[in-house]
Amino acid sequence: MNGPGEPTKRTEDGRLLRQSADSGTVMIETRGVSKHYGPFVALADITITLKAGEMVSIVGPNGAGKTTLVNVLTGLLRTTTGQVLFKGHDIAGIGPVRLARLGMARSFQLVHIFPELTVEETIAVAEIARAGKAGRLWASVRGDDAIHARVREVAAIFGLDTKLDRPARVLSQGDKKLLDIASAFALAPEVILLDEPTSGISTGDKHGIMKTLVEAARTANVKAIILVEHDMDLVAEYSDRIIALQEGRILADLPPTQFFADPAIVAAVVGMKPVRHA
Amino acid sequence: MDLGRRKAIKTIGTAGVVAATLPILGFPAIAQNRPLRVGIIAPKAGIAGTIGECGLQGTLFAVEKINAAGGIAGRMVELVIEEETNPKDSIERLRKLVLQDKVDCVQGIVSSGVSLAMGPAAEEMKALTIYWDGTTQDGVDETMAKPRYVFRSTDNECEAVMASLLVVKHWKGKFKTIAGINPDYSYGRNNWAAFQALLKKFGIEFTVVAEQWPKVGTLDLTSHVAALKAAKPDMIFSSLLFADLPVFMRTAHSAGLMEGTRFAFPAAGFQHTALKKEFTPEGMIFGHNTLYFDHPQANALQKEFVAYYHNKTKDYPHWEADRAYFAMQAYKAGVEKAQKAKNAWPSIEEIAAAMEGVKVDSLGGPGRMREDHIAEQTFYQGITTHKNKYDFPTLGVVDTMYSDQLQKPPGANFWKWIETAQIKL
Amino acid sequence: MAAFINILLGGVFHAAVLFLVAAGLQIVFGVQKIVNLACGSFYALGAYFGVTTVTWALKAGLPPFLFLPVLIASGVVLAVIGPVIERLLRTVYDRDESFQLLLTFALVLMFQDIMRYFWGANPQQLGNLVMVYGKVGAGGVDLPVYNVLVIAGSIAIALILGGFLQRTRYGRILRATAENRAMTEALGVDVRRINVVVFTLGTVLGTVGGAFVVPTSAASLDMAVELVVEAFAVVVIGGLGSMRGALAGALVVGLMRAAAIALYAELELLSIYLVVILVLILRPSGLFGKPAE
Amino acid sequence: MTPRLTTLVIVGLVALVGSAPLWATPYHITLMIPAMAYGIALLGLNLLFGYAGLLSFGHAMFVGIGAYTTAVFTSKLGIRSFELVLVASAVAAALFAIPIGLLTVRYVRIFFGMLTLAFGMLFHSFLFKFYHLTGGDSGMRVVRPTLLGQDTQELDKIAFLTGPFFLYVLALLVILGLVMLRIVHSPFGLHLKALRENARKAEYLGVTVRRFRLAAFVISAIYCSIGGVILAVPTGIADPELAYWTHSGNLIFMTLLGGFTNFFGPILGAFSFILLQDQLMSATQYWRFFLGVVLALIVILFPRGLMGILESLMARFSRGRS
């Protein structure tokens, strides 16, 4: 793990994620997606792509449609029009479980943990699902060394390996957040969607968490990451591309340098909700 | 809750042992040195709680009289009282009485469901058990073929038979259409079926225009009454017997169901004091079963009991008290007969054998325990009148029948017996 | 025709009774999110206490036609148990709702014996007092005035409650609390007080309902456990927490039952549960409830 | 408590109960039969409540199914083999539980409770109404079964109950307890706990929430029906009261009394409840009131039940030592 404060080292080609043979192939694609709630248009004509090897941020003021987009991208919501494809499968409304099986995981803005489960058990839940062992009524979790090994491995990446037998509810806020994310990583997803992974975390720790995340993604061979974030510093630091939403439409879809070079866009995104700069 | 209340609950709670109160004098040499323990299982709560409480008064009266006269074959009687609830828990209480309290005899039981379950359990435990009530012919044949230890109350619904006979006797030719409103359980079903079978037997042409089956304890019968009224029956037969009976009667009265309709209510005696004159008509056939508290020719025993009961409860007793008294006296007669024959304290088997055929003068009149362990008792029904000193109707005409006219003989099938029996009206 | 109207009126009357049992359940669930299994016990308590009070008042010389106000007053007096029980429930507000449900189940057990302790096992009733107000009707339709009063009373209570919740400031606060407790608390509303008020209101609806209906019926020991199941059916059909739902649910159950009794009496009870299950499958939030989850 | 110590304590307790015929009165031995029957039923119920987080107010239905299956087999079909009855009741329970579960596990919390209550009451009214099929309120007779093919007619009922039947039921409790222990420690069991704690999160981690709730529902139904089979034998009858909603309430009461957060809590709860009810019924006619008081105290003061009290006592003890 890198120490807090220093930026994450990018790979030689300037990318955040490790590049592999299939880098550049399309992982997620939306085609003209819109979502209406009665007369209210939450999303209109969203067409975006996420390629392997990319880390893309979705930004926008509150009410811009970020949550709806996240729910569409994670297969929770059906679209009103348009398609959402993940690795070529239409995933609109398929639900979280099948999404996880297809290879996409997510973390949550508000910490989602299993309060009474230990760190070890929490990560094991994902590992069991990943390994397809969930239907085993007659096996023992405790006696399964493969599960243990994987759980320790994942926990170690997030620095949780010393807290394996602690119930999640007693963890610090930062550790809870990490556990939430760690369990998503334990699914060994190809794509992971991180919904404000640093919300509720003190500014000083935010970079630490992001670094851990990118590090973990590299270790776990995550092919692409979607980051939903408010903090523009983090967005600037941890994106290959930034997609800005405004009133349910795409305002911009640009690399960070170009994004921040356009004061109008920055004002539109930042101006509506002041962002604390570190 | 303050201490005073807690104490009150403890004293009022009749559970536990009601000890013999009288000084023990001149024990016969053969008496054992401990009192005779009689376990009582009777409902206290729920819909049948009121029935159990009345029965218990009959038992207490019997025990007070027995103990005052020196006990049963010289041994005082003490009671251990348990609550009858559902079949499972009631059988557990039976086991407790037999195995833990080591009672000499168990009496009680009101519900037919519990009685059916308890019969085999008591037989298998060799527990001398005398039912107050609660048996119907359903299932009796297979579960209790030849009981050795269990003694049952009258075994088919004698009151339904008697009410049907009275309907024939008093109203033959006066009705064509009939309707029934009976509680939705085996008792109600059997009553209604027996009534129709008897009408057929006596060649009465009738049409059933409505049948209602309210769940026991239904307290809003407006729709049922409306449906009955719509069917315009000449006569209504009903074996309602719990809190729903006064509710029915009041609703029927206010809906004008009574005008032009005759009522035959074989089991109304359970609620006799709750059926007020204002809404209970004269001229209905009303069953008091084995105890009619206001019988003009009542014996001294009944008069004494009615006074005893009224003094304790400010109410007038119904037949469950008689059943309970009968059970206790039948036991006493059996023990004393067996004891006399053996001239030593008899075994349970000897007592049970001795009880077969014993005759007992119960509160309501003479009774007998048949050889097949089924009681014979005297039944009272009649036609209601308002000419009395009470706020509820009593019987103007009292019909009295002994149960040999009303229940099937040993081993017979009830429905076959109805077809073939020589019944005098 | 007269027969049909009689049966219909029977159904409406039963609906009115059920609404009175269910109304308290609804308001408590609506605001406090507690399913009160003891609502039937409050109703039974109101019935018993009403019989005792009126009997005593009549003995003390009350003219019979004045019994109704005394009866209602006796139900209102029982409001005193509301805050006491609310105090008990307060201990589990922050727990899982199963605990709240179980605590009210404990109350059901206790109330059964409390009532038996005071009133014994004999059912209690008010003789024919119900007919003091006479009856109305023509052409074969007969209806005691008191039944009309019960139906009118239910409608009045529904309207007053509805008006109170919709039109008054306090009612709006209650609804706001139902929507978002934390938010109302943040706005400076004393939620503790609201809990006491709402639970007491729910209790009084039950006790007054029980007292109000008892002249047409009787108070008996098992009514509490029997009624709560019917009340459940009503609120599930109408939608948990909704007053309009309670009214609609009561009407559905009342009329269903009347129809079953008139057409095929064997289906009386079964039909109610079948409707409940049907509603839960097709429209799980009930006719007027908000969707759950 | 270390796992080894736990194992020792459990083995000790099983041996203690198993040797009851040597030291307990026949009455107390017969009391232990319903306690063990409820213990089995509650192990199942607690898989649903304690592990999957679903509070059912209708599981008395499955106890009823077990009892009625026993009645149908032993008295109507004349099949008295207890093992066959157990299998049949498990099958019957599953046949009922699958469609009911499919409909009910879509809901959680209070809605699940109400829906299961409605199904329970539907079943109760079916038992009550379909008089010709079920015997209505009188119920159906249960004839003494044969155990492992052995007919025990030469024993009287108490000897049968306190002898072979008692040991048989204890063995069943141990076996079904071990099976359940295995289940809760399986990957499946862990997923149940996860979906109880946070169903949304669990789904995103690939937990098939509804399917596993259904599985837990069916397993719990099977355990409850086996409990019902055992209850029916000493009673000698299957009656509709077994399926009434207050019986479901009692099942939850017992679970809570023992402590639903501990695997062994429900078994302790079943034994304590039976003992408590027996003592209260003997002591006062107002036993329902005091049962209510006990339940209220448990809910308010000791939500983790007797096991919770034991655990904190033990924690205090070991802290005191170290």
What strand order characterises the main sheet of chain C? 1-2
Radius of gyration of chain D: 19 Å
Largest sheet of chain C: 2 strands, antiparallel
Rg calc of chain C: 19 Å
Share of residues in strands of chain D: under 5%
Measured by DSSP, the beta-strand proportion of chain C falls in under 5%
Low-confidence stretches of chain C: none
How far apart, in Å, are the first and last alpha carbons of chain C?
A: 46 Å
Counted by DSSP, the helix tally of chain C is: 12
Provide the residue-averaged pLDDT of chain C. Answer: 89
Outline of chain D: globular
Descriptive overview:
The complex is a heterotetramer of chains A (278), B (425), C (293) and D (322). Chain A has 278 residues and is an alpha/beta fold. Chain A starts with 25 loop residues before the first strand and ends in a 6-residue tail after the last helix. Chain A contains nine helices and eleven strands. In chain A, 33% of the residues lie in helices and 22% in strands. Chain A is globular, with a radius of gyration of 18 Å. The N terminus and C terminus of chain A are likely disordered. In chain A, strand 5 and strand 6 form a beta hairpin. Chain B has 425 residues and is of the alpha/beta class. Chain C is mainly alpha-helical. In chain C, a hairpin with a 6-residue loop joins strand 1 and strand 2. The mean pLDDT of chain C is 89. Chain D has a domain of 220 residues. Helix content of chain D is 77%, strand content 1%. Chain D has a two-stranded antiparallel ribbon. The mean pLDDT of chain D is 93. Classes of the chains: A alpha/beta (278), B alpha/beta (425), C mainly alpha (293), D mainly alpha (322). Chains B and C meet through helix 2, helix 8 and helix 9 of B and helix 1, helix 5, strand 2 and helix 11 of C.
Summarize the structure.
The complex is a heterotetramer of chains A (about 280), B (about 425), C (about 290) and D (about 325). Chain B is α/β, with parallel strands linked by helices and about 425 residues long.
